[in-house]
């Protein structure tokens, strides 16, 4: 199995996601079916998943995500893709129950063994999450793509969403930044999978904060949550800020960075999403204090694949949440809006 | 908007589905996560969707389907793709509640208006079905692909599945055959969309048999159900036969055929799936009586996109079901197995 999956595609992972601006234009003209009152969370606020109430105590969390290979090892690719898809359910405070596979691949040129391995990687992640693979759909296509549509459950009164962040909340991030540039470097053979193992481990870590926080009675301390994917830290932060009607402030020195990420940005391993994410958010950002290097700024626009959760946490519980979650770090805080109709993001050193 | 969508892809619709045999090989090597008792229907019997019990009275139906354009008009494509995806929920006796869009398209070359129209077509179908579009995922890709991941609900005691067909049941089909060859002919400009409008109307008709049967108290007369997609009538019939442990018998003269379908097969408008479906099923079929023409046989292997429901119905209720459902026709019956471990399908004239 000597195929290098990243060499079979032009762009990989969440970097291939359609830019938010583009998406807005496309969907702006669509007349959607009426949303029933049971639809508690829809796509309006760029939440990670939709939530539909089924009974007074049960709501369905639905999400899907798929992409082209960002790593070379098939099983690793499947595991990352599944971890990434599952993350959207966790980001809503839910727990995944079932998943459907989304698979496209060139039947004629890609061996069955590769696909079996991709599926096995996905099953590895699902097993860790306590969820099952219950079906899926596969088509013949020019390039390999894989992902999952995941269903999860959440109590309707315990949903985490993009809305709900309050001034004073501490912003906590659960994974380091840099998967976009590191996987771009991998694709261009500047690094090996082994050399960026920290990023690999990060992308295969479940965002199951709920499993750590619930036993400690800390779930209600989470006022808002999102997971970081294609739009990068600042893109997703802006969406959370807009949905919650607040401003955000990040301290760059506190933001965790995956080893080698700044160096790879400096060496020019960028994706189209670095540019589109910057265009999407730049007008909303105030860079405070002595100027950050351009690679530092670009890191904040770096498209994440299977990135961490960004949590807005009640200040009195912030330390407890940081201690409860592996790797979590406080990286900023929520402020009252300075301007009435706009979210501003301050970056300090 | 003069783009002809079918000219942007190599193969379209459910004909691009990975063949069943291939899929078995790929999945045979995968170690799946353990399935909990709540997972009432998984992928084992080639059911159309998975079913996961949530409460004693509520089960979640999950399915997803997506494909490349099989028609030229963007809105029509979106509507067919959505109708096709919704069908899997109906085939389980469920009703759809929410759907997530699955969208891949070449951002650089396909205009936003085309995508807006595709999405609108999907929303048209969802509205008719009483379901909502609650989110989705879109990526930059070489060719347009669209579909939905659909969640629906069903009472755990009222699930229709591939299992449950009983000897003596009447086999009822709710749409005519031939979308595979007709859309192949459309792609190769042998016919226009207008000339095959019957097929277009068929592919945009919801398989919401449940909405017609429930008010008449006929839902329990359905012992087994599946919808016809990429594997064709005989492929899906065989899967139902295997899952139910029965034989099947079809009378060719009673099978509804879309106008022009036999002629298009005769003219050679075939897809790869015609061949793979035949390979998949041919050994299980007994052709009885005077020989059918080759085009007639190929029609039974024709890959359907958004095809009809194949229902195994209690004989005493068969007439009532046929009368209740628009277009439904009795096309055969269920027999006891002649061989212990094998499903046989008899085709008579």
If you had to describe this structure to a student in words, what would you say it looks like?
The structure is a homodimer. Chain A is α+β, with helices and mostly antiparallel strands and about 350 residues long. Chain A folds into two domains: about 5-160, 60s Ribosomal Protein L30, Chain: A (2-Layer Sandwich); about 170-349, PurM-like C-terminal domain (Phosphoribosyl-aminoimidazole Synthetase, Chain A, domain 2), CATH 3.90.650.10. In chain A, about 30% of the residues lie in helices and about 25% in strands. Chain A has eleven helices and 13 strands. In chain A, the strands form two sheets. Chain A has a seven-stranded mixed beta sheet with strand order 8-11-7-12-9-13-10, sandwiched between helices. In chain A, strands 1-2-3-6-4-5 form a six-stranded mixed beta sheet, covered by helices on one side. In chain A, a hairpin with a 2-residue loop joins strand 2 and strand 3 (about 60-65). In chain A, helix 2 runs parallel beside helix 3 (about 110-130) and helix 7 (about 230-245) packs parallel to helix 9 (about 270-280). Chain A starts with 19 loop residues before the first helix and ends with a strand. The model of chain A has no long low-confidence stretch (mean pLDDT about 95). At the A-B interface, helix 1, strand 2, strand 3, strand 4 and helix 3 of A face helix 1, strand 2, strand 3, strand 4 and helix 3 of B.
Q: Radius of gyration of chain A, rounded?
A: 19 Å
The assigned CATH architecture of the largest domain in chain A is Alpha-Beta Complex
Averaged pLDDT of chain A, please? 93
Helix-strand makeup class of chain A:
alpha+beta
Strand content of chain A: 15-25%
Total beta strand runs of chain A: 13
Multimer state: homodimer
Describe the sheet with the most strands of chain A: 7 strands, mixed
CATH superfamily of the largest domain in chain A: PurM-like C-terminal domain
Q: How many domains would you count in the coordinates of chain A?
A: 2
If interface size is counted as residues with C-beta under 8 Å from the partner's C-beta, which chains form the largest one? A-B, 72 and 72 residues
Uncertain stretches of 5 or more adjacent residues of chain A: none
What is the element string of chain A, with H for helices and E for strands? Answer: HEEEHEHEEEHHHEHEHHEHEHEE
* Span of the ends, CA to CA of chain A: 46 Å
Number of helical stretches of at least 4 residues of chain A? 11
Into which percent range does the helicity of residues of chain A fall? Answer: 25-40%
CATH C-level class of the largest domain in chain A: Alpha Beta
Lateral arrangement of strands in the main beta sheet of chain A: 8-11-7-12-9-13-10
Q: What is the third-level CATH name, the topology of the largest domain in chain A?
A: Phosphoribosyl-aminoimidazole Synthetase, Chain A, domain 2
